[in-house]
């Protein structure tokens, strides 16, 4: 599946990843969203700096082609998919997503990206050869966490989001995923209708031209961009009225590779919010557990041979990452190791935290103790 990649897509990535800062090419897709400033919104609409009426522009088709490179994929993904109500009423009532898709095959069938009528018809793999998964794995990983991981590990969060009608996700340590901002519009279709969705993109390599900008991707989906570390970001919370997160996600995190993760992990632990990280191989996940354990924030044991059980959600005492079915299909090679790397290959949650809603009232005191 997805074994061949067209030259235009490969060229697109070579051009995209040459930038020192991420986000400076988002002007190429400006027709896909309206843009406002977080600073201007703070001055003009203190009650709700994100209030905005969305309007489409005339060059939408051109921007879609720039985003997805291939004309057929651009056309198919510009069409709203058919969303069928769940047959299981209880599952629908306690879900943040509009459709349950367990893997790439199901998604390709749902979006019309292959000639199959069912995901079970995977014998002819040539029908699943569209390279669009190279672009979409960022957004679909977020979707998978919301659809399959969060319900098992933090069902109270789902109930809280459904009650407020707003879902706030903090994506931390962002790099190339910000350059993929147009593909995050898929979350408009994948996340349950009726929910307002706010995505915060927070990272140290954000280009100054997009820093503190709000990208209004649809009438209910917006992306707020912030340059800096997550713990520094929280230091400005009182000035900008930043939303408390429902979920924190770090894609391709490399927790053991950067010293700046230490204060951020301590902050996440103090927030008490569900947090999930991804990495390219099991070895990196193992070191992520070690970092959290060393800081006293979670277990440092790692037992990948005992099954795909995410952080003892069933009370087994086993801590192991989950293989992400929406990982990137591109096989990466790293010098000095023989195992394969795939972006967003595994999902793990190394921080053991109390329930967020039960500790929300004491949040200010906890942040003060961390000098955030």
TrEMBL record:
Q: InterPro entries, from UniProt?
A: Mss51-like_C
Residue stretches spanning the membrane: none
Which top-rank group of organisms is this from?
A: Eukaryota
Please state every residue range assigned to the domain named Mitochondrial splicing suppressor 51-like C-terminal: 140-332
Q: Which Pfam families match?
A: MSS51_C (PF20179)
| Record key words, sorted | Signal
Signal peptide start and end residues: 1-24
Q: Protein name, please?
A: Mitochondrial splicing suppressor 51-like C-terminal domain-containing protein
């Amino acid at each position: 599946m997805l074994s061949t990649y067209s030259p235009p897509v490969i060229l697109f990535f070579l051009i995209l990843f040459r930038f020192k800062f991420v986000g400076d090419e988002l002007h190429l897709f400006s027709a896909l969203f309206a843009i406002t400033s977080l600073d201007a919104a703070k001055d003009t609409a203190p009650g709700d700096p994100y209030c905005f009426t969305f309007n489409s522009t005339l060059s939408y088709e051109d921007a879609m082609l720039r985003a997805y490179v291939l004309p057929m994929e651009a056309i198919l993904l510009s069409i709203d998919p058919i969303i069928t109500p769940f047959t299981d009423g209880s599952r629908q009532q306690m879900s943040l997503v509009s459709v349950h898709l367990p893997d790439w095959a199901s998604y390709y069938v749902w979006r019309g990206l292959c000639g199959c009528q069912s995901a079970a018809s995977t014998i002819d793999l040539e029908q699943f050869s569209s390279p669009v998964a190279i672009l979409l794995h960022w957004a679909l990983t977020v979707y998978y966490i919301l659809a399959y991981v969060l319900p098992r590990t933090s069902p109270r969060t789902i109930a809280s989001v459904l009650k407020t009608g707003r879902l706030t996700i903090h994506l931390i340590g962002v790099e190339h995923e910000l350059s993929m901002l147009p593909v995050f519009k898929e979350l408009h279709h994948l996340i349950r209708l009726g929910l307002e969705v706010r995505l915060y993109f927070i990272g140290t390599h954000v280009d100054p031209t997009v820093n503190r900008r709000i990208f209004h991707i649809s009438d209910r989906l917006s992306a707020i961009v912030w340059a800096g570390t997550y713990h520094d970001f929280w230091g400005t919370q009182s000035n900008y009225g930043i939303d408390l997160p429902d979920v924190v996600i770090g894609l391709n995190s490399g927790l053991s590779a950067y010293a700046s993760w230490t204060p951020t992990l301590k902050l996440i632990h103090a927030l008490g919010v569900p947090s999930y990280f991804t990495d390219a191989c099991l070895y990196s996940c193992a070191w992520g557990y070690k970092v959290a354990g060393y800081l006293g924030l979670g277990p440092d044991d790692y037992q990948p041979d005992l099954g795909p059980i995410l952080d003892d959600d069933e009370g087994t005492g086993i801590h192991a990452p989950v293989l992400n079915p929406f990982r990137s299909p591109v096989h990466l090679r790293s010098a000095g190791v023989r195992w394969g790397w795939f972006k967003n290959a595994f999902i793990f949650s190394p921080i053991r935290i109390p329930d967020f809603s039960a500790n929300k009232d004491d949040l200010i005191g906890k942040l003060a103790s961390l000098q955030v």
